[in-house]
Write a structure and sequence with these properties.
By secondary structure, the chain is of the alpha+beta class. The protein has three helices and five strands.
Length: 141
């Protein structure tokens, strides 16, 4: 089970603002506390997604994100569309406020690289500390 939250990106000319409101994030955290046995206040595996028709833009963003400690999961073509999806993930501990700030940062990174859309995040339990990390992939996982 993973919780996902994403939405429409703001126009490039707009001031950088998160696509997901703080109240939506608070609701997401409340739902996870009520509907899962996860320790949402501890380390979780957070996945972040970007969309663009130019995979080179996603490659550049992936390089920057991996240099910041994110793991590249995939850059893959979206089925039935002339578009690619970048998926990175990182084990992090978030509150609604810190996730809101991360969303602002990732919106800014998308704009910096000219990426059409930061497409939101998902979350699931963090892997066991001694479990090997899955290899990065350029295809669907």
């Amino acid at each position: 089970m993973a919780f996902t939250l994403g939405g429409a990106a703001a126009p490039a000319s707009a001031q950088i603002a998160p696509q997901i409101s703080l109240s939506q994030l608070q609701e997401m955290f409340d739902n996870m506390r009520a509907k899962t046995h996860w320790n949402i206040d501890g380390p979780m595996l957070w996945g972040y997604y970007f969309l663009d028709s130019d995979s080179a833009k996603l490659d550049a963003a992936a390089a920057e994100l991996t240099s910041q400690g994110y793991r590249l999961v995939a850059i893959q073509k979206v089925n039935g569309r002339v578009e690619y999806r970048l998926h990175v993930e990182k084990v992090e501990t978030h509150t609604p406020q810190t996730l809101y700030a991360r969303d602002i940062d990732l919106e800014g990174l998308a704009r910096k690289h000219g990426i059409r859309k930061y497409d939101g995040m998902d979350v699931g339990p963090a892997p066991a500390p001694d479990a090997p990390a899955p290899a990065a992939s350029a295809t669907a996982r």
